[in-house]
From TrEMBL:
Transmembrane segments: none
Cofactor: binding details: Binds 1 Mg(2+) ion per subunit.
Lineage: Eukaryota, Metazoa, Ecdysozoa, Arthropoda, Hexapoda
List of residues binding IMP: 43-46, 68-71, 160, 174, 252, 267, 331
GO biological process: 'de novo' AMP biosynthetic process; IMP metabolic process
Protein name: Adenylosuccinate synthetase
UniProt-annotated binding residues for Mg(2+): 43, 70
Length: 438
């Protein structure tokens, strides 16, 4: 690991981070791909960690998701918001790859590039590489997203309405449209666009699409995007073979994974380690370190069960002190105690080699801090994480209670400088998760 793990603690733009296992395990191996994944429901601070690690990387990649994700990175007092771009694009010495597993809304991408360029992100044209196999999020996908949510009524999933689900649905139905289609025979692209539009109009008669206007717009997009597009599978293969250091930034987080998350309250892609392989075309044997990012408490955006949620003054305190508002949706995040049952489960799926604990300083004012360490269902302890949302909604959480440190640790950068209560909090996490070191 770069500067983020050469010491026990580092600053993630004002947030406290610590490696919850021997730090030697979290050093970036130049011969292997390093992966950063969210270990809860997202918003753990992955982008900030990636920004730090990118300093010692040659290539930073996004492997899945779309502009439903959001990362904020502060550099020299300037705040950059990323939704489709890898957070490492700020580093002028490394390339940024948007892989085949990402779904791309071109208007959103160009807007994101423009906004960040105005803040000082220059030279991105020489650093950004986009996969020709990545699927396009069309405006009609976003309209359909909203119509599908409206149809569900009180059973809506609370999606971002960014068109992510419908785009992955088109991909799975094999009538999706890829970047390569846009850059190929435009008549064939237009035919595919019309076919997809008519298909959705049959399902949603109220859908309105000005097909000819959209085709004119996408012809312009094709010219703008063409210099950035290439076959990223062979590109990454050659770069890894030549010894380049590659960092992968997972969007969303493991509990939003479409297979392993709290389905159906999930995103539409694999946010777990498997999505790295399929979303970039990487074989498993090139993956080295898998860094799980864990917030020192738990948050989630949108609907779905949340066993350790706090609907009280403590929950509001966490929300206010942690500035828990979604970067993409601007929705207030639900807050609760750290749930180690969740983190243990995502560790099973992802095989974390190290954890990065963020935002410990948000807990500074608490006299007591609870950690969820077990679930009971119908009075009996269970040893699995429920796949049924009915079961998960009815679990009783077992907690351990630790004394708070009741002082500011915002500027502490070394483990032995932390109050003993804060060190005990970290040790409780280490002891419960038993993530192996060397």
């Amino acid at each position: 690991m770069a500067s983020a793990a050469t010491s026990k603690h580092t600053e993630l733009n004002g947030e406290m981070s610590s490696c919850v296992c021997p730090c030697k395990k979290s050093k970036m191996d130049s011969n292997k791909v390093t992966v950063v994944l969210g270990a809860q429901w997202g918003d753990e601070g992955k982008g900030k960690l990636v920004d730090l690690l990118a300093v010692n990387s040659d290539i930073v990649c996004r492997c899945q998701g779309g502009n439903n994700a959001g990362h904020t990175v502060v550099v020299d007092g300037k705040e950059f918001d990323f939704h489709l771009l890898p957070s490492g694009i700020i580093n002028q010495k490394c390339k940024s790859v948007i892989g085949n597993g990402v779904v791309i809304h071109l208007p959103g991408l160009f807007e994101e590039l423009k906004k960040n360029e105005l803040k000082g992100m220059h030279g991105w044209q020489d650093r950004l590489i986009i996969s020709d196999r990545a699927h396009l999020v069309l405006d009609l996908h976003q309209q359909v997203d909203g119509l599908q949510e409206a149809e569900k009524g009180k059973n809506s999933l609370g999606t971002t309405k960014k068109g992510i689900g419908p785009t992955y649905s088109s991909k799975a139905s094999r009538n999706g449209i890829r970047i390569g289609d846009l850059l190929g025979d435009f008549d064939l692209f237009a035919e595919k666009f019309r076919t997809l539009t008519e298909s959705y109009k049959r399902m949603f008669p109220s859908l309105e699409v000005d097909v000819e206007s959209e085709l004119t717009r996408y012809k312009e997009y094709a010219a703008r995007i063409r210099p950035l597009v290439r076959d990223t599978v062979s590109y990454l293969y050659k770069e890894i073979q030549s010894g380049k250091r590659v960092l992968v930034e997972g969007a969303n987080a493991a509990m939003l994974d479409i297979d392993f998350g709290t389905y159906p309250y999930v995103t539409s892609s694999n946010c777990s380690i498997g999505g790295v392989c399929t979303g970039l075309g990487l074989p498993p044997n090139v993956i080295g370190e898998v860094l799980g990012v864990v917030k020192a408490y738990t948050t989630r955006v949108g609907d779905g069960p949340f066993p350790t949620e706090l609907n009280d003054d403590t929950g509001r305190l966490l929300q206010e002190r942690g500035h828990e508002v979604g970067v993409t949706t601007k929705r207030v995040r639900r807050c609760g105690w750290l749930d180690l049952v969740v983190v243990r489960y995502t560790a099973m799926v992802n095989g974390y080699t190290a954890l990065c604990l963020t935002k410990m300083d948000i807990l500074d004012t608490l006299n007591e801090i609870k950690i969820g360490v077990g679930y009971k269902l119908n009075g009996k302890k269970i040893s699995y994480f429920p796949s049924s949302m009915t079961e998960l909604s009815n679990v009783e959480v077992e907690y351990i209670t630790l004394p708070g440190w009741a002082c500011s640790i915002e500027n502490v950068r070394e483990m032995d400088k932390l109050p003993s209560q804060a060190r005990d909090y970290i040790k409780a996490i280490e002891d419960f998760l038993t993530i192996p070191g060397e």
